[in-house]
Amino acid sequence: MNYREAVPPPPVTLDDVRGAQKMLSGVARVTAMESSRYLSRLVGAPVHLKCENLQRTGSFKLRGAYVRIAGLLPEQRAAGVVAASAGNHAQGVALASALLGVRATVFMPNGAPLPKISATREYGADVRLHGQVVDETLAAAQEYAAETGAVFIHPFDHPDVIAGQGTVGLEILEQCPEVRTVVVGVGGGGLAAGIAVAVKALRPEVRIVGVQAAGSAAYPPSLAAGRPVSVENPATMADGIRVGRPGDVPFAIIEDLVDEVRTVTEDQLSAALLLCLERAKLVVEPAGASPVAALLGDPGAFEGPVVAVLSGGNVDPVLMQRVLRHGMAAQGRYLAVRLRLTDRPGALATLLGVLSVADANVLDVSHVRTDPRLGLTEAEVELHLETMGPAHCAEVGDALRKAGYTVID
Hints:
Blueprint: H1 14-24, E1 33-35, H2 37-43, E2 47-51, H3 61-70, H4 74-79, E3 81-84, H5 88-100, E4 104-108, H6 114-122, E5 126-129, H7 134-148, E6 151-152, H8 159-175, E7 181-185, H9 190-202, E8 207-213, H10 219-225, H11 248-257, E9 260-264, H12 266-278, H13 290-297, E10 306-310, H14 317-330, E11 334-342, H15 347-357, E12 361-368, E13 378-386, H16 390-402, E14 406-407
Parallel strand pairs: 2-10, 3-4, 3-6, 4-5, 7-8, 7-10, 8-9
Antiparallel strand pairs: 1-2, 11-13, 11-14, 12-13
């Protein structure tokens, strides 16, 4: 007699995702898919943007949160739910709970962006600020769940959440049936895992590529080790994918179904966010721009047609300002220069005249006239300039030197 080892069933199936899609009908939007001429030219094949940044609450998180909470038993709903998040998951849980008539308590870290705190409260959740980092906030939420009996809603490590996120994959196949590559950002892994379940079940030849920020990339070492491992002190501007350890449930799916996980730099994330804003006219947070960053970093690596999932658009305005400036610098369109000039009436106006002739747009000027490093007749000026690219930066520097200025930095 032949004995075969029993194979455990997969944690999430295509039927689960299809069931989630029915549950989300009339709740989550079927978000638009926009083609990108710029990225298509760069990649050499059609590139489409799946705009989950235009989803209700501004990200895909509503899908998984709603499916998870809708699946609770009546007595569990009566006890309420609790979550911990710095932004997108908080808003998804808050709105899902309001739609289902469930009391929600959301713990957010001190220092979370004020717009995200306000939005979560406006969706009806009881927001409690605790801790300086998400790990402390998470511990507080789990303690609250243990004390009150509220159900803890994990942002990615649960089959119902993954099934809800997988509905993005079904929409991709409906909107772009000829797709050959799907590129998606990866934090804990819920979205990538859900998309992989849906897409691979129906179109196994489609390549799924996950993208992580290099400063918080827990999946590459985890996949190499064959188990989830933690990254100490994950650091990236892309807070939506700043997760120090993969979830157990999504990791098992990603290990089996996702073809590759790539990393991108902070410069690439900044440039991608800027490109989405300027070329696609879409406001996207750094985590949501990570698939575009991967395309910019290695455009020849993706077989088209390509679908890049823009997972969210909840970017703090203060961070947006910093990231845009960083993105301009990464593209050579932002120049900071420090120089010395003779301290006399009209000297600054003359300098600005030189920059005007060179077509450099002055964003900021700092003028120092008293400093031990300076001579009696010297002044130091630091200029922040907007330029048209690296070649223009070089032209501006040459123009300043030809005009007789000593460029220090």
